Amino acid sequence: MKITRPILFLALVALAACSPEREAVLSLAPVPFAMKTAEGILARLSTGPIEGPFAEEVQKAGALASATVYYSPLEQAEKVIFMTAYWFPEDQFDVLQNPDSPPLFGFEVLRQDGKVLSVAGPVDSIFAPDTPDGRNLIDLYGAIYLPETYRAGE
Asked: Which residues contact 153 (CB under 8 A, 6 or more apart)?
C-alpha cells in the first residue's frame, strides 16, 4: 500500500500536466459576445474601440457595435491589432457583401436573432510562427472564425 500511494500521486500529477489548458473568456463589449480562448493567452489580449477614419466607415455601414482585439507581445511593449469583431443587422451585412472583393467588415461567423457577428483577422503572420507569440496567434487564428469560439450575452 505504501508504494501504491506515491505511484498513484505521480500518475495524477502526470495527468494534470497533460490536460488541456483551461479556457477563459474575453468580453468583446460593446459587441454582445465574449470570445473563448486559452487562459494563458487571455492576459495578452485586450479590447478597445475601432480608431481612426475607419471608425466612421463602420458606423456609416450600419454596424450596431464593433470592437478591436489587441495582442500584447511577450517581447515588446506595444500591442498590435489582432482582429476586429462587428455586430450588424443581417440585412445590412448582406447588402455589404461583394463576391468580387475581400470582405470589408470581416467574415460571417454566426447569425442570431436577425443579426450577424463577423470577424476580420490577420491576413498575414504578425510574428514568426516558431516564436511564443507566433504560436499564440496561430492558436487564436485557428479559432476566431468558428462559431463555438463565441458566447452570447457578454
From this structure: 32, 33, 34
